[in-house]
Specification:
The protein is an alpha/beta fold and about 210 residues long. It has one domain: Rossmann fold (3-Layer(aba) Sandwich), CATH 3.40.50.150. Helices cover about 35% and strands about 25% of the residues. The longest helix is centred in the middle third of the chain and has 13 residues. It binds S-adenosylmethionine. S-adenosylmethionine binds next to α1 and β2.
């Protein structure tokens, strides 16, 4: 999917996104924020923040920047931030594959349910690495293709409809690692039946 297609799908999803993808994916959001072990004063970047379902889960003593390309999804996130008085959150409309933040701007960077949506996971992860401090951690939560033959067949059957559903249902972890070089120091199953995966990688780049 290109950016235009993504914006179109998520414009359509925005009003009902929380109903369909709120509670069912919330354990994964909660788990990754728990694993991030945020320390007071840290600067956190969440790419593809969507309607901001994760935002109330961060400790209030860290500063969270959330970016997304969908203005309609972000509008919902803005409403949430205002309603819950989340003064520690800043939201911006920005392409996560081409961010305007300087290098090494953040202590931790996270992508929740985004890597199988973006046009180029390789560019996304390269940008996540660039804006994250060296030696810090990058986090990903996503659904990857299952080894269970029945589930995997269903995922392959849904693959041609990625433009409609807004993500690539048959996106494999091997493909993700190959495209991004994301070396996972942690790999934890999350959400219903453990069908989603939480990955953590150390941001190994020049100090
Ligand atoms: C499946 S939703 C996940 C939203 C949120 N992270 C959550 O936990 O519900 C994917 C989000 O990624 C956003 N997105 C897709 N491509 C993007 C890009 N290149 N830059 C920024 N956001 C992007 C979409 O607009 C959408 O809001």
């Amino acid at each position: 999917m290109n950016l235009e297609a993504i914006e179109k799908v998520y414009r359509r999803y925005a009003p009902s996104y929380d109903f369909y993808f709120g509670a069912v994916l919330q354990p994964g959001r909660r788990k990754v924020i728990e694993r991030m072990n945020c320390r007071p004063g840290e600067r956190i970047l969440e790419v593809g923040v969507g309607t901001g379902l994760s935002l109330p889960l961060y400790p209030r003593n860290v500063h969270v920047t959330g970016i997304d390309v969908s203005r309609e999804m972000l509008a919902r996130a803005h409403d949430r931030v205002a309603a819950m008085h989340l003064d520690n959150v800043t939201l911006q409309c920005m392409d996560a594959e081409s961010m305007t933040f300087p290098d090494d701007s953040f202590d931790k960077v996270v992508a929740m349910y985004v890597v199988s949506v973006v046009p180029s996971p390789g560019r996304l992860v390269a940008e996540m690495r660039r804006v994250c401090k060296p030696g810090a951690s990058l986090y990903v939560v996503n659904h990857f293709r299952q080894s269970n033959p029945v589930v995997s067949m269903l995922e392959r059957m849904m693959a041609p409809f990625s433009g409609l559903v807004g993500f690539h249902p048959d996106f494999s972890l091997e493909h993700f690692v190959e495209q991004t070089g994301f070396t996972a120091a942690e790999n934890i199953p999350v959400n219903l039946f453990g069908y989603w995966t939480l990955l953590r990688s150390r941001n190994d780049k020049r100090g």
